[in-house]
Structure formats: C-alpha cells, structure tokens
Amino acid sequence: LLDLTGIEGKSQRSIGYSLMRGLDAHAQEDSIFVGNVWINNFHIDCCAIFDGHGGDEVSHFCKENIGLFLYKQLEKCNMRMKDDVSAAIKSTFSNLNSALLEHLTSHNLENKHVGAAAIVVLVIQSRDTGTSTIYSANTGDARAIFCRRYTPSSSSTSSSSS
Q: What is the residue-averaged pLDDT of the chain?
C-alpha cells in the first residue's frame, strides 16, 4: 500500500505492507524492500515486492540488493526525463539479474529451480516544483494496480520489455 493522500492540505506519503501466508503448506517466500533517498533535488520513495518461487533465496537476494542497484542507476540519469528513469529501472533489473546469477553460481544453486516475480514502484518528487511522478516496473506475473479513492485507475499505462 503506497498512500499519497494529503492530510489537511499537507503532502504526505506512507508506505505499508502486509504479508499473509497462503493456504499452501510451503513457507513464506516473499520479500519486501521499502526505502527512500535524496538524489540531487529529487526525493525518491521505493517499494518493491519479490514473490519467491521455489524458495526464498532469490526474493531475499533481490530485497537485499535492489536499493544499491537502483540508486546507482538513478544517480546517472536525468530524473526530469521519463525515458531516462525508465532506462535506469530496466538497467537495474538487468544488473540485479546478472548479480543474482553470479550469487546462485557461487552458492552452487544455479541448477535449482528458483526465481521471483517482482514489482517495483517509485515515487520521484522534485524539490524544485513539488510535483511527483510514479513509476512502476514488473517482471514475471507481478502487477501493480493504481487506485484513486479506492477505485482502480484506468490512467496507468503498461508496456513490456524484452
């Protein structure tokens, strides 16, 4: 849950989450990353959910490393340019995947059938203008639903990359 509502005219963000174990007998395999950082004149909130498949190794690795990879990419881009931010997010996914493969190989897990679906949501707010832009990226079967006043919004766009 990423709540961007204002209280008494003040801009406020809150990020919350809840994990619930399903009816399956296996252990919880999901991991969640919540973080924020200032890069230049932009405040960035990030919430990422990793839905582990075949164990929690991949989702835990992604949770522990997404911030490092993402913030490094965002430091190199022009945050006023949506294409630059989108490219930074795609590079983050690619670099995180490469690091994950190295990690799995070094722990003799490369032949184990493990993985994770991911959803990453960024809210980037300009200190200069106060405006915020929301970015969402996913891989696998994870999806984000954006709502306004508890109603799903049709204004979000979806695209895929190879």
A: 82
Taking each helix axis from N to C terminus, what angle separates 57-75 and 82-106, rounded to the nearest 10 degrees?
140
Q: What is the largest CA-CA distance in the chain?
A: 54
Query: Between the CA of residue 66 and those of 16, 23, 48, 107, what are the distances in Å?
Result: 18, 29, 8, 19
Phi, psi of 119 (to 5 degrees): -130, 130
3-state secondary structure of 97: helix
Mark residue 8 as left, alpha or beta (left: phi above 0; alpha: psi -120 to 50; beta: remaining). Answer: left
Q: How far apart are CA 116 and CA 108, in angstroms?
A: 18
**Which residues are registered as beta bridge partners of 10?**
7
pLDDT per residue rounded down to tens, the chain (162 residues):
445 444 444 455 666 666 666 666 566 688 889 998 999 999 999 999 998 888 888 999 999 999 999 999 999 999 889 999 999 999 999 999 999 999 999 988 777 888 899 999 999 999 999 888 999 999 988 888 777 777 777 655 555 444
